[in-house]
Amino acid sequence: MRASHHEPAGPSERAKDIAARVEAFVRDVIVPYERDPRCGSHGPSEDLVHEMRAKARAAGVLTPHILAGGDHLTQVETAYVLRHSGLSPLGPVAVNTAAPDEGNMYLLGKVGSDAQKERFLKQLVEGRARSAFFMTEPATDGGAGSDPSMMKTVCRLDGNHWVINGKKTFITGAEGAKVGIVMAKSDDGACMFLVDLPDPAIRIDRVLNTIDSSMPGGHAEITIDNLRVPADQMLGNSGEGFKYAQIRLSPARLSHCMRWLGACTRANEIATDYACRREAFGRLLVDHEGVGFMLAENLIDLKQAELMIDWCASILDSGSLGTAESSMAKVAVSEALMRIADRCVQVMGGMGVSGDTIVEQVFREVRAFRIYDGPTEVHKWSLAKKIKRDWKNARPV
To answer: For the segment 297-334, what is each residue's pLDDT rounded down to a tens digit?
Structure first.
């Protein structure tokens, strides 16, 4: 496979400096907010988001992966920085590296016009607004989920406006968002539109109660009823929405891996500290083989996840889209992080299932991550199809 020829580069000095400042800020300033009552079942409140971002802005670590002038760090550098931002579940929100904003900023930077960047992207980069990506649709209506080609939301041109109708679900951060990217299907195929939020034509029917709780606004069910969008707010060209989705989703899957690697690193720190302090049956927990071996396995999985992320990031930096590689990384890393989070809970016993540390939250978040941005099984199926295509194109054995 072509990817095997790319060796991941280590983080640059620039990335190390940024990551060090981000880590210090997250550990010293943001970790204490983890017990803030404004952290609810649907994520941190808007008031808390603004408060944390104001402190990140003052510390010079807001949106650290996008440099002055709009240039992005490389994917390898971004991997290093986002991993450190994820050391608290609140870290990515505070420093503006969280989903869906990070992926939406990346997409707008790649596809948006100058006018669209000035109007929509600038406020996201400055951390003054949050965004939402309206793609997933209700399964009960037979809409697009893991298979975007099943999209039911439609758009039609009416003069110099597009009119959009449909339903969406699991729209992360829709409640409280100021910028929306809406996917709909025209006669040409899938399209994307930039919209100002809130808009009376985009109705939040309910915010779902889900296993995770780190993302502001939670995940909403949406009805879009005759939404009128000026033609110049179409992102790119009509019919090319799926292509733009891949531009966004391949790096975004990897960014999820980066952030949750940071969270699992911290969970493992907490579990290790507990095991090295707590005694049972006459000795420290860590000295019991069953516990010590779990922590050893965590170190192995953490390192393998880190290497997989860096390898995939190097593919993206090489100019390849890296769809297959991002699928491999999503599967390998999400499954490894689930094992790590599960072992951390097990090592800590009753403490591991309580809210006294972030370990139980990390377990919940990573369990959801195995589904979000494509379930493990969908990515394996995609890879299996690639294996078959490659076999057909290969010379006979």
So the answer is: 999 999 999 999 999 999 999 987 678 999 999 999 99
| 3-class secondary structure per residue, the chain | CHHHHCCCCCCCHHHHHHHHHHHHHHHHHHHHHHHCCCEECCEECHHHHHHHHHHHHHHCCCCCCECCCCCECCHHHHHHHHHHHCCCCCHHHHHCCCCCHHHHHHHHHHHCCHHHHHHHHHHHHCCCCCEEEECCCCHHHCCCCCCHHHCCCEEEEECCEEEEEEEEEEEECCCCCCEEEEEEEECCEEEEEEEECCCCCEEEEEEECCCCCCCCCCEEEEEEEEEEEEHHHECCCCCCHHHHHHHHHHHHHHHHHHHHHHHHHHHHHHHHHHHCCCEECCEEHHHCHHHHHHHHHHHHHHHHHHHHHHHHHHHHHCCCCCHHHHHHHHHHHHHHHHHHHHHHHHHHHHHHHCCCCCHHHHHHHHHHHCCCCCCHHHHHHHHHHHHHHHHHHCCCC
CATH for 2-125 is 1.10.540.10
| CATH superfamily entry for domain 242-393 | Butyryl-CoA Dehydrogenase, subunit A, domain 3 (1.20.140.10)
What pLDDT, in 10s, does the model give residues 331-381?
A: 999 999 999 999 999 999 999 999 999 999 999 999 999 999 889 999 999
pLDDT digits (tens, 9 = 90+) for 129-182: 999 999 999 988 888 888 888 999 999 999 999 999 999 999 999 999 999 999
Please say whether the structural domain 131-238 has been given the CATH code 2.40.110.10: yes
- Which residues belong to CATH 1.10.540.10 in the chain? 2-125
Structure pTM? 0.94
Region(s) of the chain under CATH 2.40.110.10 = 131-238
